[in-house]
Amino acid sequence: MEYISASSAIDNGPTHPRMLSISPEDLLTFNQTPLFTTHFLQSPTQSNSSIQSNPTIEPATTMSKALYLTQVDGKPGQVYYPLNTQTKPAPTPQGRELLIRMTAAALNHRDVFLRQHLYPGITFDVPLGSDGVGVVVGAGPDVSSPERWHGKRVILNPGLGWKDSPDGPEDPNGYRIMGGTRHYRTGTLQEFLVVDEGEAEEAPEHLSDAEAAAMPLTGLTGWRALVVKGGERNSGKGAAVLLTGIGGGVALMALRFAIARGADVFVTSSSEEKIRRAVELGARGGVSYKEEGWEKKLLAMLPEGKKFDAIIDGAGGDAIEKGVRLLKLGGILSVYGMTVAPKMPFLMQAVMRNIEVRGSTMGSRQEFKEMVEFVRANKIRPVVSRVLQTDLDDIAGLDALFQDMKEGKQFGKLVVEFGKSSESKL
Ligand SMILES: NC(=O)c1ccc[n+]([C@@H]2O[C@H](COP(=O)([O-])OP(=O)(O)OC[C@H]3O[C@@H](n4cnc5c(N)ncnc54)[C@H](OP(=O)(O)O)[C@@H]3O)[C@@H](O)[C@H]2O)c1
């Protein structure tokens, strides 16, 4: 159920946001006054050299709100850390960093696990959030071509330490995921953040801000679990693919990818309504996993004698036991999560049927790029369950969004758009 092992992840040490040599107005008028320079965005009345040569100038500071966990007593699994908002100076981009004004961020199940202290590396001084979209408003001195990034809407690769190996993260320090842990000291639930330019991708133009924010983590996880681990033969055109727990963010991204690839997709869910909605999105059919003997009902939906080529599962539990009955000989069970429990038994029947169980995590930087390109080329839209248009200090509203995920009410992603006052449904 955990994305990274606590022992393999590194601690980058604390970060201290620095004073930014611009005023909020400069940022807001960014598009009108294209003074995008390396180091900072500057006021039309200040020259670059005047600021650099006179460090005693005390410029107006742009402040940035961010969402954090509040430390309270409690045991893992029993505690539910409250949220709090803190306002600090926005960071100044250094080296190859881009300064990004975030416009939307999305929740993942890991954010709930963090609040429950069921996730490694939890810390209370790093903003939450692994998914987000924003606009580039500044660049560090070593950014290769700052003008290329000027005003671009970008999404962020949510993990560090994994370049392009098909096997797993190359970095001996392990894979580090953005948001709420000491391993990667930034998160998307904040108004301004800095990331290395190599971690940003231009957001596909056909996506709204909410949809773009919804895509990175679940898109990458769904991509690797379905496309990389499933493989063309078992999850491409004409393959029969089962996606379990279709209400989840990853499962719905996998649904979008599988349908675009021409697979025959079936689903399970706790909810008939979610199955109906999945069918509207192109699934062939589905059953409730709460129903006794659901696997027989599901097999009856396939052509006579046919079984599934691949199951893409984020629940764990009895997935292997069910998989033995549902999968063809040599079928693939691609497991990207264990929402039900962090262990599942492996069975001799699975050995006898040559079932391949493949663990799958998020993915490499290269896979992130490929996923974004596929989304752009196929005009894929992540499914967004609810958008909260609010300010990051609307703790009650944000708590309600978390509650949707905790109770599994969502069908797709739960998104926060910053700085707006009313709530909307997509
Ligand atoms: N390894 C990684 O790198 C990685 C990355 C992302 C996510 N994950 C893990 O993958 C899991 C899903 O993540 P997510 O963000 O998509 O979560 P999510 O949006 O909260 O979705 C969870 C879904 O799990 C389904 N579910 C619950 N109990 C189930 C059961 N007994 N059988 C089948 N499905 C069940 C529910 O589907 P219905 O609503 O349809 O009933 C629910 O919507 C989590 O455990 C998460 O930690 C791992």
TrEMBL record:
<dbReference type="Pfam" id="PF08240">
    <property type="entry name" value="ADH_N"/>
</dbReference>
<feature type="domain" description="Enoyl reductase (ER)">
    <location>
        <begin position="74"/>
        <end position="416"/>
    </location>
</feature>
<dbReference type="InterPro" id="IPR013149">
    <property type="entry name" value="ADH-like_C"/>
</dbReference>
<dbReference type="InterPro" id="IPR052711">
    <property type="entry name" value="Zinc_ADH-like"/>
</dbReference>
<dbReference type="Pfam" id="PF00107">
    <property type="entry name" value="ADH_zinc_N"/>
</dbReference>
<dbReference type="GO" id="GO:0016491">
    <property type="term" value="F:oxidoreductase activity"/>
</dbReference>
<dbReference type="InterPro" id="IPR013154">
    <property type="entry name" value="ADH-like_N"/>
</dbReference>
<dbReference type="InterPro" id="IPR020843">
    <property type="entry name" value="ER"/>
</dbReference>
<dbReference type="InterPro" id="IPR036291">
    <property type="entry name" value="NAD(P)-bd_dom_sf"/>
</dbReference>
<protein>
    <submittedName>
        <fullName>Putative alcohol dehydrogenase</fullName>
    </submittedName>
</protein>
<dbReference type="InterPro" id="IPR011032">
    <property type="entry name" value="GroES-like_sf"/>
</dbReference>
